[in-house]
Design goal:
about 210 residues, mainly beta, 2 helices, 13 strands, about 50% strand, elongated
Length: about 210
Amino acid sequence: MNRILSRAAVGLTAVLAVAVTVSACSSSQSNSKKPVADISTLTGKMTQVTLDSGFTTALTTLKLTPGTTGTATLDNGVLSFPITGGHVTYYKPGTVSPFVQGDIQHQGSGISLTAGSTKVELTNFDIDPGASKLYGDVSVNGSQAASHAYLFYLDGTTLKALQTVGNTAILEGTKVEISPDAAGLLNKTFNTDAVKADLLVGIAKITVNVK
């Protein structure tokens, strides 16, 4: 991959969306750090990533074919990964650091990159919103290359405010960028030095059920 990919993308997912009814509390200072939302068990909905247009152009130029694995889908430039578990606590920004804590799991789905006879699969994503990192398993031509590897950095500087729609909660706007670890692995596998850390993947949108 060449320099064009320094602002393009490879991948997947992002930081989080949560909401749950929290009992009303008094206005005392001791309550200022209580969570706005606390979901002990995440079930349902998905993480989506709208791929950067530069990414698809770069992949075509480099003859790399993107795809999906398991229950993931790729439709009109949007990758979707079902959320299968995890937990999330959301605090009012500025009261606690990090203000989003927990993990968001996506077992049984992922993405693939294929060039000739070489196929890399990145699967079983696990988002740590507090660390702004996404982890996952890596295989090359069906053989495991890494387990729970740091694959993507989640840049929340463009994150929009938490939204609730009906019985769902939505957090949208996080930039997904390739990690140094993933860049090194892809460079080695595809025999290149052009994949750069901080490579833009796209913009994430995470939707979860609210019960």
